[in-house]
From TrEMBL:
Substrate binds at D89, S90, G91, G92, F93, D143, Q194, G221. Keywords: Glycosyltransferase, Metal-binding, Queuosine biosynthesis, Transferase, tRNA processing, Zinc. Belongs to the queuine tRNA-ribosyltransferase family. Pathway: tRNA modification; tRNA-queuosine biosynthesis. Its EC number is 2.4.2.29. Catalyzes the base-exchange of a guanine (G) residue with the queuine precursor 7-aminomethyl-7-deazaguanine (PreQ1) at position 34 (anticodon wobble position) in tRNAs with GU(N) anticodons (tRNA-Asp, -Asn, -His and -Tyr). Catalysis occurs through a double-displacement mechanism. The nucleophile active site attacks the C1' of nucleotide 34 to detach the guanine base from the RNA, forming a covalent enzyme-RNA intermediate. The proton acceptor active site deprotonates the incoming PreQ1, allowing a nucleophilic attack on the C1' of the ribose to form the product. The keyword Glycosyltransferase applies. The keyword Ribosomal protein does not apply. This is Queuine tRNA-ribosyltransferase. Its cofactor is Zn(2+). It comes from the Bacteria. GO terms for molecular function: glycosyltransferase activity.
């Protein structure tokens, strides 16, 4: 259940009540694709850096270790030892981007596993069954994510099929939630808006899915190659047609600046691999722009990654030491950079929520972007 606490312009400050606790929005979900945050980050660490929601991947967990294994181990929460909310994506995006040789039919998608090449079928019912096995807090509907450069006719047909699939997802989730053996019978379902970069298709689809009274609504198929300006244009057009009293989730986005702009357009939930992936490569986010720790100028730099940062890396270690660890390929180097980056994102979300509550979101956003752009 979503409670809209305050609006500042279009920016929303809300609370999402779930069976695994309350999510304060806007929120950045920390991505743990295969039930782990890459960079040797544990769920204990997530608690220490202010993570509210962890995101895991249906396709990856279905392929390995298998959702039946997770189910037999009592569901994802028990398996990875995390008692706060978990969102699982539907597997659709990975089926369309990772898997080899796929065939899309009305019933679903036939494809080959990227791990061992074995043939797999996934449709709306299978995706819901896998996510029910994983027992996440929030399940995502199974959709097709058409390319941002796909032709209009293809996008129209694809979006119509995604709507039919959404109805099947809703029905199947209701059935699964009614079974006695279901681990989380309160699992919630978010629908996904598609339509590539065609505003009218996006709006039509948003209206259709908004009528289904789902627990939340995502905007998919953005940040897949189109420009930032195009993404903001689509958000400007689409978000007003999604219910304001339900959470809005912009999938796979993005940079700190993208998030600040998304919040400004009414988005509540975000997720992205940038803070973890960049951290593993020694790129760290600060309020004065991104640093590349491999740069020689940090060799004798005794300062923390960011002065004043309260993350586990900055409270103890110097840039010089972390740079050495990265260069020596010591896992601790990656781990410290990932912890700092996730802490940076999580802390930015707290600042965002405070700014909306205080009615000074525009001022906060402009100041934050200006400082990050100005650099060191
Ligand atoms: Zn830090």
């Amino acid at each position: 259940m979503y409670r809209l606490l305050k609006q500042d312009g279009k920016a929303k400050r809300g609370e999402f009540h779930t069976v695994h606790g309350v999510i304060q929005t806007p929120v950045f979900m920390n991505v743990g694709t295969a039930a782990a945050i890459k960079g040797a980050v544990s769920t204990e660490d997530l608690n220490a850096i202010g993570t509210q929601v962890e995101l895991s991947n249906t396709y990856h967990l279905h392929v390995r270790p298998g959702d039946d294994v997770v189910y037999k181990m009592g569901g994802l929460h028990k398996f990875m030892v995390w008692d706060k909310p978990i969102l699982t994506d539907s597997g659709g995006f990975q089926v369309f981007s990772l898997a080899g040789l796929r065939k899309i039919k009305e019933e679903g998608v036939y494809f080959h596993s990227h791990i061992d090449g074995r043939k797999i079928f996934m449709g709306p019912e299978q995706s819901m069954q896998i996510q029910s096995h994983l027992a996440s807090t929030i399940a995502m509907a199974f959709d097709e994510c058409p390319s941002s450069v796909a032709e209009r006719k293809y996008v129209e047909d694809s979006v119509a099929r995604t709507t039919r699939w959404l109805l099947r997802c809703k029905e199947e989730m209701a059935r699964l939630n009614s079974l006695p053996e279901t681990i989380n019978p309160h699992q919630m379902l978010f629908g996904i808006n598609q339509g590539a970069i065609f505003e009218d298709i996006r709006i039509g689809h948003a209206k259709e899915i908004a009528a289904l009274d789902l627990d939340g609504y995502a905007i998919g198929g953005l940040a897949v190659g189109e420009s930032h300006e195009e993404m903001y244009r689509i958000l400007d057009a689409t978000v007003p047609h999604l219910p304001v009293d339900k959470p809005t989730y912009l999938m796979g986005v993005g940079t700190p600046e993208n998030i600040l702009e998304g919040v400004d357009r009414g988005v509540d939930f975000f997720d992205c691999v940038y803070p973890t992936r960049n951290g593993r490569h020694g790129h760290v986010y600060t309020n004065h722009g991104k640093l590349n720790l491999f740069n020689a100028k940090y060799e004798l730099d005794a300062r923390p990654l960011e002065e004043g940062c309260q993350c586990p890396a900055c409270r103890r270690y110097s840039r010089a030491y972390i740079r050495h660890l990265l260069k020596a390929k010591e896992m601790l180097g990656m781990r410290l950079c990932v912890l700092h980056n996730l802490y940076f994102y999580n802390t930015m979300m707290t600042e965002i929520r405070d700014a909306i509550e205080a009615g000074r979101y525009q001022e906060y956003k402009a100041g934050k972007i200006a400082r990050m752009r100005a650099g060191e």
